[in-house]
Specification:
single chain, 316 residues, 7-stranded mixed β-sheet, 5-stranded mixed β-sheet, 7 helices, 32% strand
Length: 316
């Protein structure tokens, strides 16, 4: 990346990795196979790297970047020039981004991430158990300098310049159990864990039946997804949030946008968007050299949106 600019602000934050390695295992959503992952500390400026330990050689590694995305149907899948792929990375990427981890090696023994409970909360728990380590390198961010958007019929994804990091999302489904939902989050300290991480992936019963008939969603169940039928929510425990559906779409967006390679300072707006549109938005952003710059990341960048919000409330 280029477009590096200086920025006058408060103390520059440091990059972070994990203090120690930690692992977990679970079922892959689509294959239904048991898979294990290990999160390991990584050097400063190395970014997020996935490594298939069931494949020998250097071609087993894939850097988690937007230009390594090879498929966006039902999930986000990354791959490399050797044809090695890893699918359903968005929930882990969201947890990594939400916990402000910059450098990490993720070892996995299969082609698809474990779905866990369908949210990012188990991955946040893993990261907290391992602990984080501040590294001797400044944290950098991508600052949005002008509007960039992708508009496809009734779907939209866009960036706008603003202080801090804000995500707005709107969904609209015919099913009355979901209907139209809107939500906005200001991504400050603790916000991802408290407001987004527990929101689970969701699907409609007829879609699940169709996917299973076509060899997909073999690992899906009411234990790792919210399933909606014509009669309503099928999960006995109900929803974790009244608007869990739109919160999960924001969670997905956090994971998809983490593939920019650096935190993003700006406002993201999604209207019925998904993995494909989010990836196309990153491609459009990076293709326009005037639309972004790389700046040192400060605490003001994290708190900027909150400060603006508090000032607006005081002056109201």
């Amino acid at each position: 990346m280029t477009n590096i600019k200086n920025q006058k602000a408060s103390k520059v934050l440091r990059q972070k990795t994990l203090k120690t390695a930690i692992n977990c295992s679970g079922i892959a959503l689509h294959s239904g196979e048991k898979v294990s992952i290990t999160l390991k500390p990584a050097p400063a400026d190395s970014g997020i790297i996935f490594k298939r330990i069931d494949i020998a050689g250097g071609g087993a590694e894939i850097k988690a970047t937007y230009d390594n995305v090879v498929e966006t149907t039902l999930c986000t899948k990354i791959g490399n020039s050797d044809g090695v792929t890893i699918a359903t990375i968005e929930h882990l990427m969201a947890a990594i981004s939400g916990c402000a981890i910059d450098n990490l090696l993720i070892e996995i023994n299969g082609p698809e991430m474990p779905v866990m409970d369908g949210s990012a909360a188990p991955f946040v728990f893993l990261i907290e158990c391992a602990g984080t380590l501040e590294q001797d390198a400044p944290r950098k961010a991508i600052r949005i300098e002008k509007n960039v958007s992708i508009d496809e019929k009734d779907r939209f994804a866009g960036f706008q310049p603003c202080k801090g990091s804000i995500l707005d999302f709107t969904i609209d489904f015919d099913n009355p159990a979901i209907a139209r939902q809107e939500h906005s989050v200001h991504m400050g300290r603790g916000v991802f864990k408290d407001e987004l991480s527990r929101a689970r992936t969701f699907g409609f019963l007829h879609e699940v039946e169709y996917m299973r008939a076509n060899g997909l969603a073999r690992g899906g169940s009411l234990d790792n997804a919210v399933v909606v039928s014509a009669d309503g929510i099928m999960n006995e425990e109900g929803l974790r949030f009244e608007n869990e559906f739109v919160r999960h779409k924001i969670l997905d967006a956090v994971g998809d946008l983490a593939l920019a390679g650096l935190p993003i300072i700006g406002r993201y707006t999604g209207i019925c968007s998904g993995h494909y549109l989010n990836n196309q938005l990153l491609h459009a952003l990076m293709a326009d050299q005037d639309a972004w710059s790389i700046v040192p990341m400060t605490q003001d960048d994290l708190d900027g949106a909150y400060v603006e919000q508090r000032n607006a409330v005081k002056s109201a």
